[in-house]
Automatic annotation (TrEMBL):
InterPro entries: Flavin_Rdtase-like_dom, NADH-dep_flavin_reductase, Split_barrel_FMN-bd
Record keyword Acetylation present: no
Protein name: Flavin reductase
GO molecular function: FMN binding; riboflavin reductase (NADPH) activity
Organism: Noviherbaspirillum saxi
Pfam annotation, one family: Flavin_Reduct
Keywords on record: Oxidoreductase
Residue ranges constituting the Flavin reductase like domain according to the UniProt record: 22-165
Transmembrane domains' residue ranges: none
Family: Belongs to the non-flavoprotein flavin reductase family.
Domain of life: Bacteria
Length: 169
């Protein structure tokens, strides 16, 4: 029997089981920031971040196709990916909430292109919005890194449906 097929068969599980299986993979936690047309800022929590290439320096992240922020992130030329440190779980939760101004009371600096870099982040990457690939119910964003900085410290990690850190306890 051949194992080659031109398309995948139907899944043998439901979405709840799939989510549970995915939760077993520990991921870092990021806040992606950019600017709205009116000059205000937009930011959201994402754990779908990965390196793609060293030359040129490329990273990726993904956003649900139905996200209200999709037009902004698709249309803007730049965004900043902030890698949260182990003590920034409250920021991850804040930027995942549906509130009017997620930046209210949040300490940040501005990047070269005028985008928020969250203070206390383990690292950040200022990216040119190079390309987008719709796949399933998400869009994969590939960013070409123009600037980055590192402040070595234990990162915030999402595993088993909760935030934790790699810091020694």
């Amino acid at each position: 029997m051949s194992t080659q097929s031109s398309s995948a068969g139907p899944p043998e599980f439901d979405s709840r089981h799939f989510r549970h299986a995915l939760s077993q993979f520990a991921t870092g936690v990021t806040v992606i920031t950019t600017r709205l047309a009116d000059g205000s800022f937009l930011g959201l929590t994402a754990s779908s971040f990965n390196s793609v290439s060293l030359d040129p320096p490329l990273v990726l992240w993904s956003l649900a196709q139905g996200a209200t922020s999709m037009p902004v992130f698709s249309g803007n030329s730049h965004y900043v990916i902030n890698i949260l440190s182990g003590n920034q779980a409250a920021l991850a939760e804040r930027f995942a909430m549906r509130i009017d101004n997620r930046f209210d009371g949040v300490d940040f600096d501005l990047s070269y292109t005028g985008l928020p870099i969250l203070k206390g982040a383990s690292a950040w990457f200022e990216c040119h919005n190079r390309s987008r690939y719709p796949e399933g119910d998400h869009v994969i964003f590939v960013g070409e890194v123009e600037r980055c900085e590192v402040t070595p410290q234990p990162p915030l990690v999402f595993h088993g449906g909760k935030f934790t850190t790699t810091a020694s306890r």
